[in-house]
Amino acid sequence: MKEHTAVDRNTYDQVMLPIYSPAQFIPVRGQGSRVWDQHGKEYIDFAGGIAVVALGHCHPALVDVLKQQGEKLWHISNIFTNEPALILAQKLIDATFAERVFFANSGAEANEAAFKLARHYAITRHSPYKTKIIAFHQGFHGRTLFTVSVGGQLKYADGFGPKPADIIHVPFNDLDAVKAVIDDHTCAVVLEPVQGEGGVMPAAPAFIHGLRELCDKHQVLLVFDEVQSGMGRTGKLFSYMHYDVTPDIITTAKALGNGFPISAMLTTENIASVMTPGTHGTTYGGNPLACAVANVVFDIINTPAVLAGVEKRHNLMVNFLNDINQKYSIFGEVRGKGLLIGAELKAPYQGKAKDILQLAAENGLMLLSAGGDVLRFTPSLIISEEEIAQGMERLELAINQLT
Q1: Which long-range CB contacts under 8 A does 322-330 form with residues at least 24 apart?
Q2: Which H or E element spans position 218?
Q3: What's the Rg (C-alpha) of the chain?
Q4: Of 7, 116, 207, 275, which has the fewest Cβ atoms less than 10 A away?
Q5: Rounded mean pLDDT, 238-254
């Protein structure tokens, strides 16, 4: 047996599939919105594990429930049900339009289930030819072959052979483009209410309302991918709640487990009723360990104090970004909802988002991009005002070095 020695960033290049290009430092410990690397350097975390660590690192209540459940029951499969899953499903139903829940392990799996359900519902209730899915350019729904095909970014979808058929992409926020392609063969319209990977682009209210009307007219299911925008990220428990529109299916993941892998698909009893035992499944989905953690995450996030605090922090971060922009004239637009914020780089700086991320890390700030032209901010929903201010100081240092 090989003896395991200390690992560093070079180890990554020797042992891991080369599908990521991670930062040069390795985080080893986190607390709240601060992270420390192998060398003890401290970072302010504006990335939140890509909108996952909504309650910060190592939240005491989550550490406690993980320990407690870890001594009770980890996994039993879906041959049996379990109490944490049933309790979590009931909470999600009580807080939303939904009447039925399916648990999986990742956003991609929740979306895969949603797309399969939408097609199966249309085929079962309407016609075997009602299979068209309308999705949007720059959308992102996961990395399985089905979800990456529904996603509207060819760079992720090409190079893997034939794609699932009957998927059409149109421009986001363009209702006329949807009207031009929706018909009796359409089973679903799929979108992120706030596009994340696509540049942090919120849907216009008129666009969302128009989609709902079109879907009703053509007996089409409206599917909201809230993997990134759900669980309080935009200041409401789910972002559909900003629009006064009820979708037919929503998916959520990321923040639901605060880093423990879990996802959910929510829908109505009518739509869910087309599924029967064996129609879909998962080994780990809804396991008691994940659901126990998610129950506590849900209880903390779904409170007026946390949800109202998101908007307050949004305003604070946007004000800081506007102040930086006054000095450096680097951003063309700052946009988003809640603590899903995008700062689009102006022409001279386009394509340099990764450079800014690198400089930010050198100055002790963990940050994200959304493509080459947009800085993306998805910190903890309960990040302190002091940490926001410190993080923004470090961002300004990075931008100063770039310019």
Answers
A1: 324/392, 324/395, 324/396, 324/399, 327/396, 328/399, 328/400, 328/403, 330/399, 330/403
A2: helix 205-218
A3: 21
A4: 7
A5: 97
Rounded to 10°, the helix 353-362/385-402 angle is 120
Q: Is the pLDDT reported for residue 177 higher than 90?
A: yes
Q: How is residue 57 annotated by DSSP? A: B
323-334 burial, b at 16+ Cβ within 10 Å, e below that, comes to ebbeeeebbbeb
Q: Using a cut of 0.85, tell me whether the model's pTM lies above it.
A: yes
Could you write out the three-class secondary structure of 289-311?
HHHHHHHHHHHHHCCHHHHHHHH
**Is the per-residue pLDDT at 5 higher than 90?**
no
Closest C-alpha to 346, from 366, 375, 319, 379: 375
Comparing CA positions, the residue from 331, 260, 252, 324 lying closest to residue 292 is: 260
Residue 392 has pLDDT above 70, yes or no: yes
Sign of the C-alpha dihedral, residues 243, 99, 269, 193? positive
Q: Which residue has the tokens 């910190």?
A: 379
Active site residues: 140, 225, 254
DSSP string, 345-395: EPGGGTT-HHHHHHHHHHTTEE-EESSSSEEEE---TT--HHHHHHHHHHH
Q: Are 256 and 262 in contact (CB under 8 A)?
A: yes
- Amino acid in position 127: S
Q: Is the pLDDT of residue 174 over 60?
A: yes
Among residues 299, 400, 363, the alpha carbon closest in space to that of 46 is found at 363
- 19-66 tens-digit pLDDT: 898 999 999 999 999 999 999 999 999 999 999 999 999 999 999 999
Whether 374 has a pLDDT exceeding 70, the answer reads yes
Sheet of 340-345, strands arranged across:
331-337, 340-345, 374-377, 368-369
Unique residue bearing structure tokens 């300004």: 396
Model confidence band, residue 373 (pLDDT cutoffs 50, 70, 90): very high
